[in-house]
C-alpha cells in the first residue's frame, strides 16, 4: 500500500497588497515534510498517523502553508504543485490532501480545483481524499476531482486534525472495498461575513454545523460540511457552499440541498452590521475600570493578519489615544521601517516615530501614519512558540521586534505581519498584555481562545483595512452576481 499525503494551504485575499512569495509557504518535501507534519494538529498530521498505522509506504511530497495574503504568482503555484503531481504520476493507492479551498494564484482562480484535476489526470482511478478549511470557496471542479471530502466544523479552527482523521476514515472505507461515494455540492448565492461564522456562539453558523452533524449520523451519509467561504476573494465561486458525501448521488444531493435551504433561510444571520469606530471605543471605555477582570479587548478586524491584512493600519490606536484612552497595549503592528529605526536607537532611548499606514491599500483613500514619541523599551527578535490551542508547538517568527512605550500606550512593532496566537506574541518582547486596561489586537477570531477568557470584554472595532467587514468597500468584478447581501435578491 502506497499513500501520498500532502499539505498545500493558502487563503488568498484577492484584494490584499501583501505579497505571497514562495518562501512564505516554507515548503518542505519528503522526510522534512513528514517530520514537520507528524503529530501536528493538522489534517496532514492525521493523514500521516493513518498511513503509519496502516503500515503503508508513505510519500510526503509537500508540506507548504502561507498565511493569508494576496494572490501568489503563477510560478509559485506551479513550483508547489509540481512535486505532488509528480508523486501521483509515479503511482500510489490513495492520495490524501490537506488543502484550504480558497487559494487563488495569478491566472488561476481555483488553485485547489486545478491541482486536483491535474492529479486526477496523472493518476486516474486513484482515490483522492481532501480536507478543507471552513473558509474554502468550494467549486464544482474540486468536487468533481476528488472522492471523499470534508471541511472543518469549527471557527476558530480547533478541529483541523479531527477533520483529517474523518477524511482518512472515509478513505479507509474506500480502500476496504466500500466503493466510491458521491460528492454533492450546493452553492446558494450568499457572500457570508467571516465575523458571522464563529461556531462558538449561537447563530446561523452554529445552527448549520449542528444540522451537518445530525445529517452525518444518518444512514448512507459519509460527511456533511458547511463551508462559510471566504468573502474577500473576487472569484466567481466565492461564498457559502454545502457539501455532502454519501453512498449514492440522490442521498448526497438531498443532504447538500437540505443544508443549502437552511443556509438560505438563515442568510440574514451571515450579515455583519459594523458599528462606527467611535461607538465601539465608547463601549470599550464604558466596559473598563474596576479592579481585576483583565483588559478590554479591542479587535481591529478590518486589518486581520489571518485574512490577508497588512497589519499596519493605525486607525484604532489613533482613535483610542485621541479619545483619551490610556493603559493601552497594542500590536503587533507590522512596520519594518519603524523597527529598523527603533533598533538603531536602541533600548532605553527616545524616538520619534511615524508608525503604520505605510502599505498602500488599493481602492482605499490615503491615510497618514501616526506620529508618536516615546522610549524604545525592547529591541530584539520577535520569536515564540505557540502554547495556545491553535498551531500548538509551532515556532513563530515575527522578524525583528521592538516596543515603543509612549504616553498611554505600549506598542509592539514587528517586521512581519503576525496573528496574535497567544500571549507569547507580547511576552517575547517583555510585555504583559493582561495587565493592560485596553488591549488592541489585529485579529478577528484566532486570538479568541486564548485572549477572550483573560479579558473583561471583547469589542469589535471597524477600521478601513483590506479585511474590512464592510463588503461595499471592495470592487468585485468576477464574483457571480446577483449575490446576497450585495444585490437585491429574493430567491436562490
Ligand atoms: Zn479558515
Automatic annotation (TrEMBL):
Domain Microcystin LR degradation protein MlrC N-terminal: 2-284
Pfam families per UniProt: DUF1485, MlrC_C
Cofactor(s) of this protein: Zn(2+)
Keywords: Hydrolase, Metal-binding, Metalloprotease, Protease
Note on how the cofactor is bound: Binds 1 zinc ion per subunit.
Microcystin LR degradation protein MlrC C-terminal domain location: 298-478
Source organism, top-level taxon: Bacteria
Signal peptide annotation: none
Entry-linked InterPro entries: MlrC, MlrC_C, MlrC_N
Cited function: Involved in peptidolytic degradation of cyclic heptapeptide hepatotoxin microcystin (MC).
Protein family per UniProt: Belongs to the peptidase M81 family.
Protein name (record): Microcystinase C
Organism: Roseovarius aquimarinus
